[in-house]
Specification:
- The chain has helices spanning 18-28, 33-40, 44-52, 59-69, 73-96, 108-113, 123-134, 139-146, 149-152, 158-178, 187-198, 205-217, 257-273, 289-302, 308-312, 317-327, 331-342, and strands spanning 221-225, 236-242, 245-250, 280-282.
- By secondary structure, it is mainly alpha-helical.
- It folds into four domains: 18-96, lambda repressor-like DNA-binding domains (434 Repressor (Amino-terminal Domain)); 100-162, no CATH class; 171-302, no CATH class; 304-360, no CATH class.
- A hairpin with a 2-residue loop joins strand 2 and strand 3.
- The protein is elongated and about 100 Å long.
Length: 360
């Protein structure tokens, strides 16, 4: 990701109306305000308001001033635009001052560390950059998106106490996924892609990851990989960015290949079977029937349940390897299924590959 760091220039907390420049120009010409009024056809009262900045210099007025003073209309138009822009920024800063407390919820330091946000020169500018990151113009707008009852009904309980880090992680996924060029979603093609991806599981990460992403993108699914966020104990999430493009968001929480692949197929199950309106988060809960269905889909996709009894009876590494070869899947997936079925979480741990983030 390209770093968002940048250099800030000086930005004054005041705005100078273009009328001040106009006053200087007519002074240098030895022209009085009354004479300027006669030469431009503007009233003295209008000129007073222009001097004070309460009346804007319109394009027509700028043309008249060019003829009367010799200073181009473009210059007057630019001065007016700069003045109005600066006024708007001052008013915006005043408005944002009231929302600074909200910043405490957002993991700003972490987002700066990741290069997503620039290092701010002050808290108001920081707030502005965070709002830009979320693609909203105000904290009120952020709340409408992330606290809407429709969203609350389908999100993890983590949102209630950690809505800042939770929303930040998902937003990072959205931004990454939006940048992935995808075909229009095709359910049949995605099912075929999942079968092809299963054959990639035995490959090293540097080989399977780009191919997995390519196959999904050709089916209309953008796979985003975002590093774990503190206080967000999730393995993945699914969200439809448009009616024709889905996002599968994953991390490497736990680092084990078994957890990673289960999470991927879990989210794939949501894409295939659940509503396009839902934001679905894999936080390990079993209360939602959609989560149970997604878990079942992931389990069957990796190792059909008819092999569960045989896996429970495994007693050696050699048997794990044999079963993996039989199923055409990584030994770590079989080891993970054994641990899940038996509760012997320390058995065969060395057979489960550890996945790591690269430096990119």
């Amino acid at each position: 990701m390209v770093s968002a760091a940048r250099k800030y220039g000086f930005e004054p907390d005041y705005a100078i109306p273009p009328g001040e420049s106009l006053r200087e120009v007519i002074g240098s010409l030895g022209m009085s305000q009354k004479e300027l009024a006669k030469r431009t056809g503007l009233t003295v009262q209008s000129l007073n308001r222009i001097f004070k900045g309460t009346q804007p210099i319109t394009y027509e007025t700028a043309n008249r001033l060019e003829l009367a003073t010799g200073v181009s209309a473009t210059m007057w138009n630019n001065l007016e635009a700069q003045y109005r822009e600066q006024l708007a920024r001052i008013h915006e800063r005043e408005r944002l001052q009231d929302d600074l407390d909200w910043l405490k919820e957002i993991p700003v330091a972490e987002l700066v560390k990741r290069g997503v946000l620039p290092r701010p020169k002050d808290t108001v500018e920081q707030l502005r950059e965070v709002l830009k990151f979320y693609g909203v113009s105000s904290v009120e707008a952020w709340c409408r998106i992330w606290e809407a009852p429709a969203v609350a009904a389908r999100r993890s309980p983590c949102f209630e106490s950690k809505r800042g880090p939770a929303s930040a992680w998902i937003r990072l996924g959205e931004l990454q996924a939006r940048a992935i060029n995808c075909q229009t979603f095709d359910k049949v093609r995605f099912k075929k892609a999942l079968k092809q991806i299963r054959y990639l599981i035995r490959e090293p990460a540097h080989a399977f990851q780009p191919e997995m992403k390519r196959l999904c993108a050709e089916s209309g699914v953008a796979v985003a990989m975002v590093r774990e966020m503190k206080k967000v104990p999730w393995n993945g999430a699914t969200k439809w960015l448009t009616p024709h493009k889905a996002m599968i968001l994953l991390c490497l929480r736990g680092r084990g290949e078994d957890k990673f692949w289960f999470s991927f197929f879990h989210e794939a199950g949501h894409v295939l079977h659940d509503s396009k309106k839902d934001l679905l988060i894999n936080d390990g809960s079993q209360d939602d029937p959609r989560e149970k269905q997604a878990n079942g889909f992931a389990a069957e996709s990796l190792i059909p349940s008819k092999y569960d009894d045989a896996i429970r009876r495994i007693r050696s590494k050699a048997e794990i390897v044999h079963m993996a070869d039989l199923l055409g899947i990584a030994t770590g997936i079989v080891a993970g299924r054994y641990q899940f079925l038996t509760g012997n979480w320390h058995y065969f741990k060395e057979l489960i590959r550890t996945l790591e983030w690269n430096n990119a």
